[in-house]
Amino acid sequence: MAKISINLKKGNIQKQEDVIIGIDLGTTNSLVAYVPAEGKPARAIKDQEGKNTLVPSIVHFDQTGSIVVGDEAKNKLEINPERTIYSVKRLMGKSYDDVASFQKLLGYRIINEDTEALVKIEVDGKYHTPVTLSAEILKHLKARIENNLGQVVSKAVITVPAYFNDSQRQATRDAGKLAGLDVLRIVNEPTAAALAYGIGLDSSEEKKVVVYDLGGGTFDVSILEIQHGIFDVMSTHGDTFLGGDDFDRAIIEHWMTANNWDTVLLEEDKGFSQSIRLLAEKAKKALSKKDSFSAELKGTQITIRKQDFESMIRPIVERTIESCKKAMKDAGFAPKDIDEVIMVGGSTRVPLVHDMVKAFFEKDLNTSQNPDEVVALGAAVQAAVLAGKQKGVLLLDITPLSLGIETMGGLMDVIISRNSKIPTALARNYTTSIDGQKNLKISVFQGERDLVAHNRKLGEFILQGIPPRPAGIPKIEVQFMLDADGILVVKAKELRSGVEQQITIKSQYGISEAEMAKMLLDSIQNAKSDMEIKALLEAKNEAQNVIVNTDRFVKQHKSWLSEEQISSIVRLLDELKSSTKGEDKDVINQAMTSLNDYATPLAHEAMDKVIQESLSGQDINSTKVD
After folding, report:
1. Catalytic one among 78, 122, 213, 248?
2. Partner of 425 for a Cys bridge, out of 127, 410, 481, 559, CB 3.0 to 4.6 A?
3. 189 has catalytic annotation
4. Could you confirm whether 71 is annotated as catalytic?
């Protein structure tokens, strides 16, 4: 049955088609695009004024709790830096350890409560993740295209850097789900870029293509071999923490040194930090066309010459060329084998980047498309393929629903995401949660909800004979192997002892198209509540680990801890235990932060004592070597 809708802008009744949109969720800017009809080119959607297609990837929280995104949020960077979050993509799927060196340049606060856990951002005592922040950007893009088309949009293709790992890809998918989008495909940015250039759309075309993608915060280079509409990624290399932001940082460091400004200013005066960062971004763009840039900051005239800028960023660009060398070597190609080099990302506008890439590949570069828009346009082409508006591109077989296992609190931990190409094999490491645990039940589920109770159980088995050790010590690898026929083999192995067990689950698991559609629909309709429950359960699980480890720490070191220190730890521990009985994740996170802030210096002191005791009385110069 065809859907009938009323176009509120034109006031007429029209047949409504399902529109699948393409989204480039970028570090600096994001875009949304779509293909209006078969045979028509993809187009990026502009703002209400019809001027800009770019949406700054910035989220601002005002004092009333309201959220603004894009240009309006960017205007708040200097006046409310602690409430204005940018470069979220650089934090996707990252732990605090991964981004600690990045903290001093941020106007907002990254939480260091567990260096192994995914990073959190605090605003007014509320804890936000890169997933929830990215969801706000995606909601803004969704609203933009809905306003432009006059209809609701619920399906999308979202692009990610080719170098994004499973954790980062899953985080991007979660963000889409939270924004009310059914993410039909996560597409590598280089593949999207090639599609935007029309490469691969002619089924008779055979080409070897290099996609050099330098964005605001990420870099990757991919070597594609395209034959008969099939895109085969021969190799990829890059860095998810390298981009135009690093060019800005080089300019900032130059100005700080030239004007004898103490770098502590960047941490203590967040208004100044954002002012100089925005000026550095402005200088970078100006130096692509001019020989120098000048401006006033803190009553001081600051300047930078193009030749100095290029000298500073040359080592950064050289890192991208090293990635190109490695990708070419992995693919087994030489520059003469390459038919085309495509430049993607706003940072490729820097002349030095263009010149160094051209010199390495020894050929003219294809820059005919807008480097800012090309990825979003390619995502729209991929969306058109899924919608049946684009013929001749073969989509390889994929798994229709996510596959994963049950973890603490009844959470679904996805190992193979839906729409993954098959055959495929992926593995993740887990550990025990109880001291002396000898057996571990592996329960396998299929579905898109965050709680296993809402997904379909496929089977389970017990890994027996785990060496009885303290919780967290055993290393258990769970591997999913999905073959071309859709047969899933799940294997669990304790890596220290070699103990292993496996189960085989047959193709498609007996799920009908209707059941599959219902599971996908449920995941979208319940996205908000699922994410809230998941966040609460994760906070409680993390708190439980902190409680166990803190209890163990006090027992092991009470001989040198003072009564006041033990009393303080016990008080903070009781507060944390009490918080876990409630339903507010932010209260739990705050209690963990308070305990960690107090206990971390004591843990460092304990480590120093252990090292001193182990070295006591030993002559390290006369250690016997067998």
Report:
1. 213
2. 481
3. yes
4. no
Q: Indicate whether 279 and 140 sit together in one domain.
A: no
User: Which of 289, 311, 333 is a domain's end point?
Assistant: 311
* Model confidence pLDDT, tens digit, residues 117-139: 568 888 888 888 888 999 999 99
Q: Is the pLDDT of residue 404 over 50?
A: yes
Regarding beta strands 500-505 and 488-494, do their DSSP bridges make them parallel or antiparallel, or are they unpaired? antiparallel
- CATH code of the domain containing 171: 3.30.420.40
The two three-digit tokens of residue 48, written as one number: 């209400």
pLDDT at 11 > cutoff 70: no
Residue 89 a catalytic site member: yes
Q: 261: which residues sit within 8 A by CB, 6+ positions away?
A: 255
What's the 3-state SS for 71-91?
A: HHHHCCCCCCHHHEECCHHHH
CA distance 515 to 175: 24
Q: Let me know whether 419 and 515 are in one domain.
A: yes
* Cα gap 18→105, rounded to integer Å: 43
In this predicted structure, the answer to whether residue 359 has a pLDDT above a threshold of 60 is yes
**pLDDT reading at 171 higher than 90:** no
Q: For residue 154, is pLDDT > 70?
A: yes
What's the predicted TM-score (pTM) here?
0.69
Query: Does residue 213 carry a catalytic annotation?
Result: yes
Number of domains present in the structure of the chain = 4
Q: Spot the catalytic one: 76, 89, 177, 284.
A: 89
Non-local CB neighbours of 99 within 8 Å, separated by 6+ positions? 90, 91, 110, 119, 241
CA angle 358, 360, 364 (to 5 degrees): 25
Q: Which of 57-66, 564-573, 599-608 has the lowest mean pLDDT?
A: 599-608
